[in-house]
Design goal:
Alpha-Beta Plaits, 3 domains, binds flavin-adenine dinucleotide, 5-stranded antiparallel sheet, Uridine Diphospho-n-acetylenolpyruvylglucosamine Reductase, domain 3
């Protein structure tokens, strides 16, 4: 285990010399916001000793050289919207925020590529691309806050991954700063590349443990001209989930197939002051189809609607206009916030299983809920087999009970997902701090040892986001 040094006055001076006083914070009130991310459990929070906000790859490299010289841990941070504690500086040290590196460097329409700094907000990037009739398809539901660099570091998925895949599919090139402070350029505006090891791919999803992403070149697509949504209520969650694999097997690839169980719909509807037009709804699917022409989208929409009706749907509502589409997506997007109002003490999971196995997840959630007296609601990206099972403390239960029971429920859930269904413990939110112990437990030993070897090769001093993914 590396012994880390404290950030002394002299080190702060060196950081100020490298970045200027405006880009270095040591005031604890101003640093508080950098002590946590969106992971809901407060005991994960930890204060950094200093926050730096470099404005270029060169400045990031200077910070890493100082950190290497004094053996100080460095935690990279995007927008802090992460849900696994990845951006929490658990050993103190330097918190490196890329928030001031948010420029679009070039939109290259000829090569369908955009190059930008890693601190750009994902939605801001897409708003700029929209003006050119282009879009970046790999973004998550937190797009209004999360940064592109954070999405790459987490290989974020999201609501459109059924058709478009996850962030990594669109990364053509990266500029990264290594733990020792070297600037490395990986990939290019090319769609094929087998020239040596694929190091770019290694950085995608590495959660800031191998280096800092400072710039990225992203592959773009033409904006689809037509889009429509279906909101499909079912009497039971099992019927809704079963309809997902029927749709997926039919050949049409929807943009999204989102699942919401009864309690998550109710909580979100109450939160938004919305009402369902029918009674007895046990679950819903929200299905989006997009494409280049309206006739094709409509034909596919009707076909998917028919499949839902044949498989137990109570109704099929079509939302063609922008206003209605926004209203129904708001229900899906606000579930997490609505659950926090019911009980802020919860564990938001993002288990992933083969599509044919999603129906088997729900009975296990019911069993866990009953066996351990916790509330479990479930929603998520059903078309990817990626479900946000959210384990919630009953407001009447004590914190002592929750602290004891949460790890027990998680362990049983993860073991079921990995060993009984061939799934993984995280499909998109990452391992971070929250799941590092469970990763070790559920990953084959030989694979885990390879991960340790890799980490040591990239970061021999263990200063790059220590304590995340790997439990050393
Ligand atoms: C309401 C809500 C909805 C969400 N929906 C989705 C969803 O649909 N799909 C999904 O995948 N996730 C989702 N998330 C989780 C989160 O938004 C994503 O993981 C997002 O990609 C994190 O980006 P960020 O900029 O906030 O990163 P942060 O939280 O700041 O950091 C995340 C990790 O990346 C590392 N990191 C950040 N920037 C860099 C960098 N430049 N270089 C190296 N490492 C870096 C950090 O060290 C940390 O380990 C959601 C979160 C919320 C709160």
């Amino acid at each position: 285990m590396t012994h880390y040094n404290r950030v002394t006055k002299e080190i702060v001076e060196e950081l100020i010399n490298a970045l200027g006083p405006y880009n270095v914070i040591i005031d604890s009130e101003k640093m508080e916001i950098y002590s946590h991310d969106e992971t809901s459990i407060e005991h994960y929070a930890h204060m950094p000793e200093v926050v730096v906000m470099p404005q270029s790859s060169e400045q990031v490299a200077s910070v890493m050289r100082i950190a290497t010289k004094y053996i100080i841990p460095v935690t990279p941070r995007g927008a802090g919207s992460g849900l696994s504690g990845g951006a929490i500086p658990i050993y103190g040290g330097i918190l490196l925020s890329v928030e001031r590196m948010n420029r679009i460097i070039e939109i290259d329409k000829e090569n369908l590529a955009v190059t930008c700094e890693s601190g750009i907000i994902t939605n801001d990037l897409n708003e700029s691309l929209k003006k050119e009739g282009l879009f970046f398809a790999g973004y998550p539901m937190s797009l209004e806050t999360c940064f592109l660099g954070g999405n790459i570091a987490e290989n974020a998925g999201g609501g459109r991954a059924v058709k478009y895949g996850v962030t990594g599919r669109y990364v053509l090139a990266l500029t990264v700063v290594t733990p020792s402070g070297e600037i490395v350029h990986l990939g290019g505006k090319i769609t094929k590349d087998v020239s040596g090891y694929d190091l770019k791919q290694l950085y995608i999803g590495s959660e800031g443990t191998l280096g800092i992403i400072t710039e990225a070149t992203i592959k773009l697509l033409g904006l689809p001209n037509a889009k429509s949504d279906l909101l499909v209520p079912f009497k039971t969650a099992q019927e809704a989930i079963s309809a997902v694999s029927v749709i997926m097997r039919d050949g049409i690839i929807p943009t999204s197939i989102e699942f919401m169980d009864g309690p998550s719909i109710q909580m979100s509807m109450d939160y938004l002051n919305e009402h369902l037009p029918i009674k007895g709804v046990g679950a819903m699917l929200l299905i989006e189809i997009d494409g280049t022409d309206e006739a094709t989208v409509e034909r596919e929409l009707l076909r998917v609607g028919q499949l839902c009706e044949d498989n137990g749907a109570m109704e099929v509502y079509i939302a063609e206009d922008f206003y209605t589409q926004e209203r129904i997506w708001a229900v899906r997007r606000n579930i997490a916030e609505a659950i926090k109002i019911y009980s802020p003490i919860q564990s938001l999971e993002d288990i992933v299983v083969p599509i044919a196995s999603i129906a088997k997840v729900l009975p296990e959630l019911d069993r866990l809920s009953e066996a351990h007296h916790v509330k479990i609601v479930c929603y998520g990206h059903a078309g990817d087999g990626n479900l946000h099972a959210t384990i919630i403390k009953h407001p009447s239960d004590t914190m002592e009970y929750w602290d004891r029971i949460e790890p027990v429920v998680l362990k049983e859930l993860y073991h079921f997902i990995v060993y009984s269904l061939g799934g993984k413990i995280s499909g998109e939110h990452g391992i971070g701090l929250k799941r590092r112990g469970f990763l070790k437990e559920t990953m084959e030993e030989s694979e885990y040892n390879l991960c340790i070897t890799l980490k040591k090769a990239f970061d021999p001093l263990m200063i790059m986001n220590p304590g995340k993914i790997i439990d050393l």
